[in-house]
Amino acid sequence: MRIATGGISHETSTYAKSPTTLRDFENGLGQYRGQAILDRFAGTNICTGGFMEGAKKHGFELIPLLWTFAYPSGLIPHADYQTLKGEFLQRLEEAMRAEPIDGVLLDLHGAMVVEGIDDGDGDFVESVRRVVGPECPIVVTFDLHGNHTARRVAAADAIIGFDTYPHVDMAERGREAADLIVRIVNREVRPVMAFRQMPFFWSASAQVTSHPPIDEAFRLVFEVESRPGILSVTLATGFPWADVPDMGPSIIVVADKDQALAEETATELADWVYSRRERWYRQPPTIASALESGVAAGKYPIMLADMADNTGGGASGDSTEVLQTFIDRQLPDALVLYMVDPELANAAHAHGVGAKFETTVGGKSDPIQGPPVKGTVEVVALSDGKFTYDGPMYAGLTGELGTSAWIRIGGVNVAVVTRRVQPLDQAFARSLGIDCSQMKYIAVKSAVHFRSGFERLGGSIYNIDARAVHTHNFATLNHQKRRHPMYPLEK
Predict the structure, then answer these.
(1) What pTM value is reported for the model?
(2) Residues 6 or more apart whose Cβ sits within 8 Å of residue 79
């Protein structure tokens, strides 16, 4: 049995000004071809790592084509996307000419937007379908934050979405996809899918799958997956910073042969979720109210999720409101992770450890990110930005933040980096000599993923409403393409 694999993965923010080019794919988690894919992702917690474990378990040959991932950012230029897609399809055709392919496992995101193509993932899956024909099974894994469409559901045989946020189950979903495609090829099952969209905005702070309220929704998902005839259920919360027609949460049910069962089950789940839509929306607190609540609770460190500047969603990572607040309040043992400011990072390296100089921090990408913070900077430590994640989310993978520095300004510690990478765990901070466990106040440019590496510190966590491009005040996003009224903005 020969199963081809690969994918083009991107979470696209149409509100981010910087386009996502071929260079960004190279500088993200990288571009890998052929055997290099298997060498890179063996034993890692991503879907392709799970595909590899499934191949070993079932004894099928995994044919690696092209795998690439760019960190979330703006629209992908049409020509750059066509270059990547064209190479993938060419490699697929070459593999098929060498020997028949029995199936395809795709590792995608689900919120990719290309110039002129609102549904980038749907276009990609359709393109693969045209090459392999109608009989070759295609099973796709998607992120929890996919904006799913009928187009991609029609092009695939089965879709399997993540069940966790932070995403600690990626390899597990890859193994599930591998198990399913073997059953399809062996004609043990014949999957059919049903798809339901739900018109509401799902707040990031209400998506932490190990906590209420969303844990209740996934308990129902798991119960449904145990029912006879049901092969898989995907609950996706959507990605609201993509102005596309199909933006929003959805349900996908995969059943064995029984389309009516798939349709009835999808309707049941979508009705259950939508009837509780008030539970999935939370108005975030201000920085001041979050700090006051944390102090009153006495649970340290007080962690502020600066989710409107979440680099993991495509924001620029240089908003300054939280940093300025920490300085104004003269908070002791305060830390900001990470401030994206290549200019300052390079200046810190030029001055050297121990140097002090007048400069500005952050606020350079867009006026909405707030003004730069002016002051005297002390260089505490320097780094080339290379480190290894200690998980659990990206356990085993290496990361690179580019030229980086630990600086202090106004008594506040800041990890200044060059590349827009979300803080998922404490590994990079430790590589600079920063001990997060000794901090009383920690701000992270993340919405939820940071919990995978920081929640172990205890303390208290608040998803705050601060000034930045990826605001959670959804009324200000000015969507032009969505088809339906969306709760809570409209009835």
Answers:
(1) 0.94
(2) none
